[in-house]
Amino acid sequence: MAPPDGAGGGLPAGAGERLERFAAAFEQLDSSVYPAFAAASHDPRERLDALERVQAIIGPGSRRAPILAALGEFRQFAVQSATSALGGANAVLLTRANQSSPEERLRFLASLELAVVTVILWDEIEPDERETLLGPWSEMAARAAAA
Prior knowledge:
Elements: H1 15-27, H2 44-58, H3 64-85, H4 88-93, H5 102-120, H6 127-134, H7 138-146
């Protein structure tokens, strides 16, 4: 998984490399741990407030398209990863079960999207606000930003 159009692709300076490092860490996660990242700490109102905040930062300009493309890449990878975990030998042997509810899966994707946008906009968001937006993704995002 890579940022659209390679490193950067219309993203803010440094965001492409940061996003690549975050993507590499995300790809290493087993889909069975996705529910742990469902951002239960974000109630629906907090999530809406956070989404409004990042929408305001992104604005209607030219960087909207590459950010949306990056979000699509992450969503697609997450859905494919979770779906493939349910097939093949796991399905036959019943060694993996998708025990998360549809609501948990939606919370996971919403949490992932906030994390991806926060990683992209890292330099434009205050540290305390990053923590709020990232929730359970904080450590992974901080490592991607520090590398």
